[in-house]
Structures are given as structure tokens and as C-alpha cells.
Amino acid sequence: MTRARMVELKEALEQAGWEISNPVSATDIFQTSDDQITWKINNPKTQKSSILTFYLFDHLGRQTQQLSDIFYVKESTTDLKLYFEKINTPTWKSSLRFFVRSLY
Length: 104
Fold this sequence. Notes:
The chain has two helices and five strands, in the order αβββββα. 26% of the residues lie in helices and 28% in strands. The chain has one domain (2-102). Strand 4 (70-75) and strand 5 form a beta hairpin. It is globular. The protein is α+β, with helices and mostly antiparallel strands.
């Protein structure tokens, strides 16, 4: 279900005018590297750009490459975080909207 939350975030960002790329992989925005996934986001309308970093932690603190181990995503300039709550909860939906709005 973590991939589904990432897709929801991607779609919300795109609807808000953001373009998304992964500096690690030009073809796979879900590619992990060193327990992280990095998205470079750019909004041509506002001329803003930023880096979103997804942090992966397994339950014992070991290295992981599993999307299911994503704990949160953090925006680079404000340290704004979006925790990966259960997808069908009101908390996830409202946190997602707040996160995307806060990027402006």
C-alpha cells in the first residue's frame, strides 16, 4: 500500500502544477538508494523547486529497499514532513492536502 500512497502524493503534486523526477533514475521515480527515495520537484508556474526525500526504516533499523518501509517524506528547505499513515484514514487525506498546499 505504500506505493499507492506515493502515487496519491505524485498525483496531488501534479494536479498542483509540480513536475516530478528522480535524480537517481530517469525512468523510475520509485527507485531507492541508500535507504531513501529522492524526488526533485519543480513548479514552472511559480518557478519554485525543491527536493522531497522519502526515508525508509525497517522495524529493526537495518538497511532496506522496500517501499513498505517508508516512514515519512521530508521537504528539503522547510523540513516539512508527511508521515505515511494508513491510506484510507481521514488523517492521511488531510495530511496529504496540507503537505501539498504547504509547498507553495
